[in-house]
Amino acid sequence: MSVAIVIGIVLFLAALWLHLGMIRLAKRTLQPASVNSLRLSLAYLVVLASHLAVTVLFALGFAGAAGMGLGGFDKEPAMSAMDLFYFSLINITTLGLGDIYPTGHLRALAGIESLTGFLLISCTAQFVFSTMKKQEA
Description:
Protein name: Membrane protein
Number of strands: 2
CATH topology: Helix Hairpins
Order of helices and strands: HHEHEH
Helix content: over 70%
InterPro entries: K_chnl_dom
Domain Potassium channel: 67-132
Radius of gyration: 17 Å
Transmembrane segments: 42-63, 84-102, 108-129
Pfam family, one: Ion_trans_2
């Protein structure tokens, strides 16, 4: 279990650094005093790309951890790359549909991903709120 937690912490830190860097990039997109709809849309697309990149990061982490024998997934037939991405996307949004679920120590990694997703979604919500507030002023 400790190996899965260490992998989860490394993925958490990588996801956090990636997301904060992308938020900074999105903020730079909005630097001119007059922000138009195109710039705002571009900034939000950068944030979406960040969330998708973090999802891929965790999907790769799940694949690597499963390859190390830390657990698997209860799904037949075997997990494809799309299944790993789908599971990671559902998990990081904390939606958790339950049609695919991890077994073994991958459950700890899934929990860390959900907590990471909650934190990153909160950061994104703050960014969206602040940009909308500036638009009203």
